[in-house]
Amino acid sequence: MNKLKKYVASTVIFAAFLLIFNGCVNLNNKHENELLILHTNDHHGALLPYETKDGTLIGGVALQANLVKQMRNEYKNALLLDAGDVNTGSSLSNIFDAKPDILAFNALKYDAATLGNHEFDGTYEKLKMQMEL
């Protein structure tokens, strides 16, 4: 439970930091200190791309990783954030208790993430295990 409290506290502090410094802009050099915020939510186990009606593959964590890498190369100050609901979605994610999803998120080096309602679909032990990955 202590780890959960630290996680929630750090998320709240981070959000407060963003709100406080939201208006701090150097008007003389607009691009000098740009902050790019990359945001995901409602992942729901979507590790793999899927095929649209016209046969195009879209989505998936591999595409996401390429986009994140591209944006981080382009912007010195880029934050990658997730608003929760990693759990409950694909069979792959459900069978392995979202471990593949969380390990992928770790590889993407998210700066911060919060819990969504579906993180509480399982047991406390499952949530604790996921937070320790």
Automatic annotation (TrEMBL):
Signal peptide: none annotated. Coiled coil: none annotated. Pfam families: Metallophos. Residues 37-125 form the Calcineurin-like phosphoesterase domain. Transmembrane segments: none annotated. GO terms for biological process: nucleotide catabolic process. Belongs to the 5'-nucleotidase family. This is Calcineurin-like phosphoesterase domain-containing protein. It comes from Campylobacter fetus.
